[in-house]
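Propose amino acids for all 182 sites.
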């Protein structure tokens, strides 16, 4: 699979019927910050997704969109809560439909996109496909990160030795005594 690179910003929507009739391929990028649902899943909403969308007609004259997305998504490692860059390279095949009956007749190789007008929301399609491509649980490789200290764990200090546990009620009693002195 060849790498997608272009300096052209992908439009938010296109006239899908016209592009399918003409057999047009659209190549461009979208900033991850523009994809609000995806951005909420990221460590930082920085970087771009490279997009290639090929519009056309299949053997049954169905209007189709074959796409490829490439991005490096900065996710949150669920073990250490630090940044984890995850390379995404995904392909998809869509068919434009105008009702549920048309969607039900599609082969399993095509996912339906319910059209409400001639305009196709490219931003929504790219975001949906990236969300589907996210790993179930994002974690660094085993042994390359450590979970953060839990809230209930005591941190060794000069007063307490590493093996000695702090009783939270003793701490509260000490605070109460300090409060009574004032």
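Proposal:
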């Amino acid at each position: 699979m060849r790498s997608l690179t272009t300096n052209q910003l992908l439009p938010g929507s296109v006239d899908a019927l016209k592009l399918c009739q003409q057999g047009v391929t659209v190549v461009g990028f979208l900033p991850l910050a523009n994809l609000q649902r995806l951005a909420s899943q990221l460590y930082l909403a920085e970087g771009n997704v490279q997009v290639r969308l090929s519009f056309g007609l299949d053997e049954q004259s169905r209007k189709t969109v074959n796409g490829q997305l490439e991005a490096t998504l900065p996710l949150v490692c669920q073990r250490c809560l630090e940044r984890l860059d995850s390379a995404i390279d995904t392909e998809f095949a869509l068919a434009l439909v105008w009702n549920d009956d048309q969607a039900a007749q599609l082969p399993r190789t095509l996912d339906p996109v319910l059209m409400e007008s001639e305009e196709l929301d490219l931003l929504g399609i790219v975001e949906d496909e990236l969300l589907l491509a996210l790993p179930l649980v994002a974690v660094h490789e085993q042994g390359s990160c450590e979970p953060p200290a839990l809230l209930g764990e005591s941190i060794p200090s000069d007063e307490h030795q590493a093996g000695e546990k702090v009783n939270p009620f003793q701490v509260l009693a000490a605070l109460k005594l300090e409060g009574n002195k004032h």
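Helices lie at 16-22, 36-39, 100-104, 122-133, 168-181. The chain has five helices and seven strands.
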